[in-house]
Amino acid sequence: MQAWRVHTPGEPREAMRLEEVPEPVPGEGEVRLKVLAANVNFPDALLVRGQYQIRPPLPFTPGVEICGETEDGRRVIANPSLPHGGFAEYVTASARALLPAPETLDDAEAAALHIGYQTGWFGLHRRARLAAGETLLVHAAAGGVGSAAVQLGKAAGATVIGVVGGKAKARTAEELGCDLVIDRTSEDIVGQVKEFTGGRGADVVYDPVGGDAYAASAKCVAFEGRIVVVGFASGTIPAPALNHALVKNYAVLGLHWGLYATKDPAAIAACHAELTRLAAEGAIKPLVSERVPLAATADAVQRLADGTTTGRLVVVPALDGGGSR
């Protein structure tokens, strides 16, 4: 089979190689899956660069999220077992962790439903306790992670402010249903949020960016607001001023979704059931901007790493030849 492999960490276009390799052999408690679609995530870029908290043995295949087909024909969502990641024709995954792919989503959409939407749901509902009528501020609202949070916020009855970088991304955020879109490249985030909320600020801030985005969040979060720290796509990890959180009465909440797999796996299944329901109702739908063939994977990972993408890039091996749902 064909699989992208990393022999030496580096930038995706240089470090990733498409090679012929044997199909992976399932270990105890695992199953082999045919990859129908593999979503490109920011952790994939970090894995390739050798900057992720998990460092699989070299050589390895990145790709942490797929929609696949079992040997008995079931369509499922899975997190492949590294070092045999999803940017390949076949993967192995834990049999116990397989989730049914929603019938209302195609392969590429189903592949993009899991990590981003589970992160959004746990961040907004379990950590921040977002309530209907509250104001939610989402950074990188036109990206894969941000767009999921926007949709989940709207589904929860929140007023959603989306922060983006550039006019094209602003249009995407508007189409997603943001009640206010702020272009950080030309507009003042803090001033716009304060004006829109009558000086109150945002009740919940969803931040997958860090750096300057977090600094702005602390300045425009509401009294008793909650800032959910999801990631650091900017490359800069902020150092929160706890005295500021004290005098302004807001909370800084960390979210590492992967911990729920060991701490509370039943919650992941329950969340997936809720996401499946929302997808069936049309309240959420992954924003798949491009479906790319397996041969173009390294370029897709590089573009995501460079921050030039909108929505989700999803690798569909069948586009190299063959059919997909």
TrEMBL record:
This protein is called NADPH:quinone oxidoreductase family protein
Domain Enoyl reductase (ER) stretches: 11-315
PANTHER family recorded: QUINONE OXIDOREDUCTASE-LIKE PROTEIN 2, SHORT-CHAIN DEHYDROGENASE/REDUCTASE
Q: Which InterPro entries match?
A: ADH-like_C, ADH-like_N, ER, GroES-like_sf, NAD(P)-bd_dom_sf, Quin_OxRdtase/zeta-crystal_CS, Zn-ADH-like_protein
**Cited Pfam families:** ADH_N, ADH_zinc_N
